[in-house]
């Protein structure tokens, strides 16, 4: 296809989200690492003109560690230090932040920040003291791009400079054209939106032709717009066997065409930001028509899905019960916790103070129980030719709730969870 108009110098940022739930089988993590994560990192390292933004929650970082893939974590750290990768923060165990209480959303975010510093930062402070520190993490990836004004305000108060959203979060008006960066009038944080059409074209059309993708990108370039493409990193090599080859060919062609491959942070610093009065509560699992009908979470909260409905009742009950607890106060061995990986169950099991050990374990189980996969794998819907139905992930989620109530010594809550579990399992 020929383009005769003015050719604009534009930036394109890939935002890849890689994630596995805390309940994932270790064998599956190893397989995905071999077929997807490791080849992606190799591609980034070998392409001098390729930079991208990567979201890796604590849930996956820890799984990589316990499955013997510390070399993969090391490669991410190496690329991050070389500024080939921008890392973002997120919720530690991939909850839908818009659907959980504010205090739990904050705990998920803070724990994830700690995980980023532990795996990809330094364990010494400015004066050589024991401390977890990581620099230049200014962006935030809300799991499933679930976003609303409350989460944006929370992130703005926490000092993040940009937050990712699907472009359905932008209110539509006549003459709407895609723009990658917006700002709200009363806040400092920028809203970074992906181009949903091209991102989904890449993500869901498993046998997409490279030429079609490039043509769509060139159409956007003719408008003089920078571009953000965001999708699950597992598409490359795991969901789609030829994905790594496609990624390599795609970035080579984009480079040949003079399109700058940058991080989201770099794009935000250069792109024109348009004003917004508000954002629309949305997720990247919903199209524009669904969002306008109020179907914001079509893969996680279908009104006629009884399993999902009961899982949400259960999660809300656990969240409200947790609200009654005081924040964790570590009373013993305080110095060691400056750099201690609270989420590492093997390290945790070796602590001598049983009270402290159980308090931390309770806290981690609570945050793990909020993960979104329990709803995803109960949706029983066809997405890209794959049925999202895996009862084993629901069973494992129910076990997490039971473990939490047991360690927390909440007998009434445990009885409620067991009763709800029986009801859910009877219809799985």
Indicate the CATH topology of the largest domain: 7-stranded beta/alpha barrel
Structural class: alpha/beta
Count the beta strands.
14
Number of distinct helices: 16
Can you tell me the residue ranges where pLDDT is under 50 for at least 5 consecutive residues? 327-334
Helix content: 40-55%
Secondary-structure element sequence?
EHEHHEHEEEHEEEHHEHEHEHHHHHEEHH
Overall tally of structural domains: 2
Q: What's the overall average pLDDT, rounded? A: 92
* Estimated radius of gyration: 22 Å
Biggest sheet descriptor: 5 strands, parallel
Q: Report the CATH C-level class of the largest domain.
A: Alpha Beta
Distance between the termini: 50 Å
CATH architecture of the largest domain: Alpha-Beta Barrel
Strand content: 5-15%
Q: What does the oligomeric state look like here? A: single chain
Instruction: Identify the overall geometry.
Output: globular
Structural write-up:
There is one protein chain. Helix content is 45%, strand content 12%. It has 428 residues and is α/β, with parallel strands linked by helices. Strands 1, 2, 3, 10 and 11 form a five-stranded parallel beta sheet that branches. α15 (391-407) runs antiparallel to α16 (411-425). The termini are far apart. The model is unreliable at 327-334 (pLDDT under 50).
